[in-house]
Design goal:
Cytochrome Bc1 Complex, Chain A, domain 1; alpha+beta; 23% strand; five-stranded mixed sheet; six-stranded mixed sheet; 425 residues
Length: 425
């Protein structure tokens, strides 16, 4: 496998991941902008409107037919919040040429189709097609209103919203129903035009293909584009000292309580990221973690318990599904695990188990094309250039002392509990 990043213009990048490991080629395009309350709903809506039709293929049916003709190629799109930025994501997966029954070249066709969907949408009377915008507004409304369907995800989102009240990271990635009302086919197209001219554009190609040919296609496509300096939020923000954590208890019709604890990692050094990754894994990254062993196994206080690390925001989120009456006891035991980490009350075996779990996960990154693309896109937004091998080495080099140092830079920011009894501030 070889990875190469080519700067087409400032703010427009082509990433080539050449590998013969797969029977498919995967192409991806990411449009990334800072997330704001003004644009979050428009970004989510734009993503879905673009998939409805292009100037060459005005309907979803025509696009689907074209994909079928390309031996069942698959197209997908989505929206993601990455730190204080939001990415509109578009993927197209197609069979590698050498596995086709007849000699054909689907590489150029696939990339051009994906580029058409993203950059040459169907336009009628200098705006998006009215029918498509209205249909996708209704679909997006249903997605936003179904936020509570997954109680665990809802609790995490609510904790983040309370931690980052009125700040970009606190915004819901799909936006808000009340903001949909003022979006028209005309205003959304005008927004899209500005987005394309100001966002960071990353095009990825993963597979076995003629790299020079692909490079010519993307160079030609962006020949008329201006260079841009996207105002992405890449720097880590300094965490304020917290004297007393925020607490939020919310009541809904649920049978199992959802406890989420948001932690701040008080560091401004990118190189400490890998130490924090290991810390998080020792704390709650698997069945050998302190949270799992002590909260779930020994005390039987949680059905599920784990922690996850949001690198771009320097936050760790502890999540537990508990019996509602066990709230106080579960919180007490979780806090004890945080204190134990600060005092170094974990073994070298705990550390090695965590590192081995991470190394196994990292080793599997190249086994899935979309996972590998996500890894290198993450490196792009982090402003780092660590290869997968470098990532592994940095994890191997983390010591117990490093983990304890991270532990002592962690503070509880917010405690959120979703219950069915008397919600209150």
């Amino acid at each position: 496998m070889s990875y190469q990043k080519i700067t087409l213009k400032e703010g427009i990048y082509f990433h080539k991941i050449q590998t013969n490991k797969f029977k498919t080629n995967l192409f991806a395009i990411f449009l990334t902008v800072p997330i704001t309350r003004e644009n979050v709903t428009k970004n989510a809506l734009t993503t879905t409107v673009l998939r409805r039709g292009t100037n060459k293929m005005p309907t979803q049916e025509e696009i689907s037919k074209k994909l079928e003709e390309m031996y069942g190629a698959a197209f997908d799109c989505g929206i993601e919040k990455i730190g204080d930025n939001q990415s509109l994501k578009f993927y197209l997966e197609v069979v590698n040429n050498q596995f086709l029954p007849e000699k054909e070249d689907l590489v150029e066709m696939s990339l051009e189709l994906l580029m058409d969907i993203v950059f040459h949408p169907l336009i009628e009377n200098k705006q998006f097609k009215e029918e498509y915008v209205q249909g996708e507004k209704e679909n997006l409304k249903q997605i936003i209103e179904s936020k509570l369907d997954n109680k665990a995800t809802y609790a995490l989102e609510s904790c983040i919203e309370n931690m980052y009240e009125e700040k970009p990271y606190g915004l819901y990635k799909y936006g808000y129903v009340e903001d949909l009302q003022g979006i028209t086919a005309k205003t959304l197209y005008e927004y899209y035009q500005g987005l394309i001219q100001s966002c960071q554009i990353d095009i990825f190609a993963s597979g076995d293909f003629g790299a020079e040919k692909l490079e010519r296609i993307v160079e030609k496509s962006f020949k008329e584009y201006k260079e841009r300096k996207p105002n992405l939020v890449l720097k880590w923000e300094e965490k304020e000292e917290i004297k007393e954590p925020k607490k939020k208890i919310e009541s809904k019709q649920i049978s199992q309580g959802k406890l989420v604890i948001g932690l701040d990692v008080k560091t401004d050094k990118e190189e400490e990221n890998y130490k924090t990754v290991v810390y998080n894994t020792v704390l709650g990254g698997g069945s050998n973690s302190k949270l799992f062993q002590n909260v779930r196994e020994k005390e039987s206080l949680a059905y599920t318990v784990s922690s996850s690390y949001a690198r771009r925001k320097q936050n760790i989120f502890i999540r537990a599904g508990i019996e509602i009456e066990n709230y106080d006891k579960a919180l007490e035991i979780i806090k004890k695990q945080l204190q134990d980490m600060k005092e170094g009350n974990f073994s070298e075996e705990d550390l090695n188990n965590a590192k081995n779990l991470l190394l196994s996960t990292i080793e599997n990154i190249p086994e899935e094309q979309d996972t590998e693309i996500t890894y290198y896109f993450g490196q792009e937004l982090a402003g780092t250039e660590d290869t997968i091998e470098m990532y592994q080495e940095k994890i191997k080099n983390v010591s117990k002392k490093d983990v304890v140092e991270v532990a002592n830079k962690i503070q509880i920011n917010t405690i959120y509990f979703l219950t069915n009894q008397g919600g209150q501030e």
